[in-house]
């Protein structure tokens, strides 16, 4: 149901992460190795990145498959960034929102992506729609489940919640309303990465001054670490903190576990 990746670290071309590795996101659009649901991610793609001195990210999104975009190779070759979030999409339901439905979604300093699907969408989240101001519902970029989950996360961020708290509370709220949902969320502000593993694969790689979080490894480096299911990940350029998430109605979760980059 999509593949996504985020990175914070030294400035580098987009293509070094998204195109050049043997199993990069570009290749995952037609040949993912660890995708549990769906086989081809051809329903849109997007990349968001941060320019030096500008806290608001830029985005490039399209409705079609990444391999069919003749401009993307040039963009990926010359654009350099210290942080990015990118995704290729396998739509849960066909819709008319075109590139508006393609991640990353954006607001202020944040970029966001959702890998998964909300069970019973849209009826299952009717009660949660009532918790959002009408203006926020009407200003959603798209009419799909991912855009709605982003609206829930963004409302919490704008209310002052920390990024990890905003993701964790949203996942648990949606999981309670729509059991069986897959809610791998990915968020960056250009300096940190926050993510959840909830129903699909998530991995991370730490290198000196650089952290990558992805649906699946883009190469065969043995230092990739898989994130356990039902886990919140919070990462900087130098360390990764993993905190188990509690399923609605489950017992208390164990203590967090910290990984430090080498």
How would you describe this structure to a colleague?
With 262 residues, this protein is α+β, with helices and mostly antiparallel strands. It has a single domain, classed as Aminohydrolase, N-terminal nucleophile (Ntn) domain (Glutamine Phosphoribosylpyrophosphate, subunit 1, domain 1), CATH 3.60.20.10. Helix content is 21%, strand content 31%. It has 7 helices and 14 strands. The chain has helices spanning 14-18, 25-28, 72-78, 126-129, 134-138, 145-158, 163-177, and strands spanning 3-13, 45-49, 58-62, 80-88, 105-107, 110-117, 182-188, 193-197, 203-207, 210-214, 225-226, 231-235, 239-244, 257-260. The strands form 2 sheets. A 7-stranded antiparallel beta sheet has the order 3-2-4-1-10-9-11. Strand 2 and strand 3 (58-62) form a beta hairpin.
What's the oligomerization state?
single chain
Biggest β-sheet: strands ordered side by side in the sheet: 3-2-4-1-10-9-11
**CATH C-level label:** Alpha Beta
Rg calc: 17 Å
Percent in helix: 10-25%
What letter string, H or E per element, gives the SSE order?
EHHEEHEEEHHHHEEEEEEEE
Strand pairing plus helix content: what structural class?
Answer: alpha+beta
Q: Which whole number gives the mean pLDDT?
A: 92
Q: Enter the CATH topology name.
A: Glutamine Phosphoribosylpyrophosphate, subunit 1, domain 1
Shape: globular
H/I helix tally: 7
By CATH's scheme, which homologous superfamily applies?
Aminohydrolase, N-terminal nucleophile (Ntn) domain
- How far do the termini sit from each other? 32 Å
Number-wise, the strands total 14
């Amino acid at each position: 149901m999509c593949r996504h990746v985020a990175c914070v670290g030294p400035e580098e071309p987009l293509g070094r992460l998204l195109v050049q590795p043997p199993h990069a996101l570009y290749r995952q659009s037609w040949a993912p190795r660890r995708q549990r649901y769906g086989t081809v991610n051809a329903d849109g793609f997007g990349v968001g990145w941060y320019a030096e001195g500008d806290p608001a990210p830029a985005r490039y999104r399209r409705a079609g498959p990444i391999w069919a975009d003749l401009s993307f190779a040039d963009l990926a070759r010359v654009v350099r960034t210290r942080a990015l979030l990118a995704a290729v999409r396998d739509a849960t339901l066909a819709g008319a929102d075109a590139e508006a439905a393609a991640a990353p979604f954006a607001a202020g300093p944040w970029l966001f992506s959702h890998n998964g699907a909300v069970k019973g969408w849209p009826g299952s989240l009717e009660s949660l729609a009532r918790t959002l101001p009408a203006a926020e519902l009407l200003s959603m970029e798209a009419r799909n489940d991912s855009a709605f989950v982003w609206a829930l996360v963004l409302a919490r961020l704008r209310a002052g919640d920390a990024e990890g708290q905003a993701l964790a509370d949203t996942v648990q709220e949606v999981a309670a309303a729509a059991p069986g949902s897959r809610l791998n969320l990915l968020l960056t502000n250009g300096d940190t990465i926050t993510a959840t593993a909830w129903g699909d694969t998530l991995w991370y790689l730490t290198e000196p001054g650089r952290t990558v979080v992805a649906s699946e490894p883009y190469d065969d480096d043995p230092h990739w670490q898989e994130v356990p299911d039902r886990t919140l990940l919070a990462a900087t350029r130098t360390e990764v903190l993993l905190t188990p998430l509690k399923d609605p109605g489950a017992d208390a979760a164990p203590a967090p576990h910290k990984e430090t980059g080498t």
